[in-house]
Design brief:
Blueprint (H helix, E strand, L loop, with lengths): L1 H20 L10 E5 L2 E2 L6 E3 L2 E20 L4 E7 L4 E9 L5 E8 L6 E5 L6 E22 L2
Parallel strand pairs: 3-4
Antiparallel strand pairs: 1-2, 1-4, 4-9, 5-8, 5-9, 6-7, 6-9
């Protein structure tokens, strides 16, 4: 009988520790997420052809995601906007096939302007690298890229 009480007490202590230790009361639930053409980017290295439509969201978290994009032309049309009440920073860095910077633009949340658009600098056609960075970002937004003129 004593051994049964011992195991019952041990099981109760372990169960209590597991439930208390797995509490979701933590303040570390901040996140930032980037999606391209409906695909959430978890790691770097995804690749896309054709027009790129992306979106991002965050609740104070930070994230940097890089993907590869096939651009058959030497420029790209770009567009990005964030919610007017967003906080934090959004940055879009685009490198051409030779690794040269053709675009490096940022938007700071909760301030104007809350969008940008235009045509990248001329670069080398081929596989371009696109890096989207969110820093302490709280809000949402979208971006797009398409082959330029």
């Amino acid at each position: 009988m004593k051994i049964t009480k011992f195991y019952f007490m041990l099981l109760t202590i372990v169960a209590t520790t597991v439930f208390v230790g797995c509490s979701d009361d933590d303040d570390s639930d901040t996140m930032a997420q980037v999606s391209v053409n409906g695909t959430v980017l978890f790691d770097d290295g995804d690749d896309f052809n054709g027009d790129v439509d992306g979106d991002f969201t965050g609740n104070g978290g930070s994230a940097t995601r890089t993907f590869l994009w096939m651009n058959n032309l030497t420029t790209a049309d770009y567009n990005a906007d964030i919610t007017a009440s967003a906080e934090g920073t959004f940055n879009m860095l685009v490198l051409d096939a030779d690794g040269n910077t053709v675009l490096n633009r940022s938007l700071d949340g909760a301030s104007e302007p809350d969008s940008f658009s235009g045509v990248t600098d001329a670069g080398t056609s081929g596989i371009w690298s696109v890096t989207i960075s969110l820093d302490s970002f709280n809000g949402d937004g979208s971006f797009s890229l398409s082959e330029g003129d």
